[in-house]
Design brief:
single chain, 346 residues, mainly beta, Methylamine Dehydrogenase, Chain H, 2 domains, 4-stranded antiparallel β-sheet, 3 helices, globular
Amino acid sequence: MKHPHLRIPLITTVLGTAMTTAATVAPALTPLASVPATVAAAMPRWTFDGAIHNNSLAVSPDETIAVASYSERPDVVVYDLRTGAVRAVLHGYITPRNIVFEPSGDSFYISDSSLGRIDRVDSRSLQVLSNLAAGAGAFGTTISADGGALYVNNEAASTVTRFDLTHQRADAVITGFAQPRQGVRLSPDGNTLLVTNFLGDKITLVDAHANTISGEIAGFNKIRAISISADGKTLYAANSGSNSVSVVDVEQHRIIRSIPVGRDPYGAALSPDGKTVYSGNLADNSLSVIDVATQRVVNTITGFNEPRQAIVFNRAGSVAYVLNKDLSVSKVDLVAGRITETLRPE
């Protein structure tokens, strides 16, 4: 539990200056081999919320690069998807939490809960362009379809901050959550923000125009990742406490079915065509493949290393990129149902 006094200055930080110069905070950009593991292991590493573990993977809209992080490591790895090689490693983070590309693909955002900031990184030069101050505990992020707004969960303050990306500043802080962590999504129409609360195992619905809470959905068991259908009517949520994926009727605000999957599921990734949900099962090192039409597991893909939330599809929906604990990325042929290649950080 965080000490209460840590929460007092947080909102002031968010509502104060939201951007600093990149020159003062830009993480180092070096080849992976330049930082020996023995040196990295010897470096002191204070974390604000180090007991909470998650990973993140984002693929650029043009599908040329993938950016990967694991909160236990200060490295953020950038892969060249055309060659399968590491393009670069971004250093200087402590607990990187979430990565999201802006719609144009020109830049991406990395949140760090210990540093309390979100870096905007140029996709080509991989240099930090600016920073958004979100306070210690900054966790999950999601961006609007037009690239104008970024929403940031703060699990320590139990808030969600909306950043105006045109002006690079916070314009709303929404309260009333309970440890919102990585799970946050905008509905396809952009009208509703869906925020997972680890404390209380519920999803809070937020009116994205009024920036006010409009409802909630309860009944989960250690809720993790969420996905939502293209029509916004059905939501899928991973429950690591019950080894299941919940099927949720969003309009009725209730769980309508529970689908058993592998052990300790974190992922609940809906394929681009909306026909399949993939559950990343940490304890089984596998993906459970759920057929949406029948709402049952039809296949299990093995060979991973503690997969969590980070499952990303190509636009065609033929390939899934799955992040492993060691920051390697497994490339999965979804038609064949198997790993065809693994991109490795070393």
